[in-house]
């Protein structure tokens, strides 16, 4: 690998270019006409314009990216996250063009990106998934039999339905017997199909994900990240390691992720997402993300492993450089996603002209960003401005240092979510590490209510 | 007849349809209510509905589907009635 094309923009393009340069690999940036004068373009050894501003006409056009790779003489392509990163067809096209795709093989992306097939892989690897009926059940006795195997509480939903319509949660057999007939009748009249799915309902769920590295033969884990603090399914704060699980769950979950990676012959960095029931600490595999993730720096700070550099080494054909026993996690790392959104206006996206920029630094504070003074934040892409990532020898130290770092952060010209994080750090549930996927939205709506 | 300009409150990419396979929200000559959605503007991967703002007949659209619009830019004209 001599020349790497980075098929992305923003902070992750900057991050990848830096890792490549650290390894002595030259870099090719691609950019839309909206990103001509941006940091990733200037940082790369060479840059190729690939189209007009909307991503659908530039960053998402596989042929334009491949043509850029050819014209700039690249021998490898790193897709970053988002855009083309989890499109099996793109990975295959890169390989067909005789270039190295920095990520797993196209068929693995395909397999792990499909929920049904990923569940089959999990079953083969002995990894638990959320228990439920594979198909619909059509009468109450069948439902009761299925529920006895699945375990209560149970979520009932129309087999033919979509979204959240008509979902009922039942606590026990009596409640199931009472609820099933009406639910089934409603489903029949709404969808013309009265069959119902049954699935275990997790009242308080944490989203915990395990980072893995594989070389196609072997796989190791780099512990887990806690990603439950989300708003509208967008993660806002992540941390490594997860404060809400004990050593036993950690050991079982990380081992499960390694089995999954081995099962599919995974080659690259990947993340196995799990849902953890906060009440009984049972965990279930949800899906695998076959790309580098936004929150990867938290893992890097606690393990000392450069995940992007390892991706590049693996793609170049090197075997894993770390034995499992050599990978240790030390301290606590927190990541705050600072976005150009206005919390006071319902998190309205806020592109615009930036003025002054002050980024935090200092001991154990890392900022991954594309921000510079006087840049324009375009309306065409995601709102992520910067990731403030903070390490501490323990969680309390990391939290205290995060307060300091976030107070230093200043961007003029566009509203950001930075101020909100200082508030979150002050919440008792955050300090105690006691939160789940619903906590942040609940806190926010209560805060809005109180402000009225 | 008062002329009403429908203005995009945000910058982004302008869409006439809810998704590529659907019919446009409104066509020229069509009568709309003040609260009817006449277009979408995509900003930072989120979609915002733009309402007519006045009841009446759609006279014309001032921008093409998938054009880039600025905040405050007029995107359509309605003959309020």
Secondary structure: elements and pairs:
The complex is a heterodimer of chains A (about 450) and B (about 80).
Chain A lengths: L2 E4 L3 H13 L3 E7 L6 H5 L2 E6 L10 H11 L3 E3 L9 H9 L3 E2 L4 H8 L1 H10 L15 H11 L3 E5 L9 E3 L2 H19 L4 E5 L4 E11 L3 E13 L2 E7 L6 H17 L3 E11 L5 E7 L6 H8 L3 H9 L16 E8 L1 E2 L5 E2 L2 E2 L3 E2 L6 E5 L6 E2 L6 E9 L2 H14 L1 E2 L6 H8 L2 H5 L6 H13 L1
Parallel strand pairs in A: 1-2, 1-4, 2-3, 4-5
Antiparallel strand pairs in A: 6-7, 6-8, 9-10, 9-12, 10-11, 11-14, 12-13, 14-21, 15-16, 17-20, 18-22, 19-21
Chain B lengths: L2 E5 L4 E4 L15 E2 L4 E7 L2 E6 L4 E6 L6 E2 L4 E7 L1
Antiparallel strand pairs in B: 1-8, 2-4, 2-7, 3-6, 4-5, 6-8
Describe the structure.
The complex is a heterodimer of chains A (452) and B (81). By secondary structure, chain A is of the alpha+beta class. Chain A is built from 15 helices and 22 strands. The relative contact order of chain A is 0.11. Chain A folds into three domains: 3-93, Rossmann fold (3-Layer(aba) Sandwich), CATH 3.40.50; 140-200, ATP-grasp fold, A domain (Dna Ligase, domain 1, 2-Layer Sandwich), CATH 3.30.1490.20; 205-451, D-amino Acid Aminotransferase, Chain A, domain 1, CATH 3.30.470.20. In chain A, helix 4 (88-96) runs antiparallel to helix 5 (106-113). Chain B has a single domain, classed as Beta Barrel (OB fold (Dihydrolipoamide Acetyltransferase, E2P)). Helices cover 0% and strands 48% of the residues of chain B. A four-stranded antiparallel β-sheet of chain B has the order 1-8-6-3, with no helix packed on it. Chain B has a four-stranded antiparallel β-sheet with strand order 5-4-2-7, with no helix packed on it. The mean pLDDT of chain B is 93. The chains are: A alpha+beta (452), B mainly beta (81). The interface between A and B is small, with 12 and 10 residues.
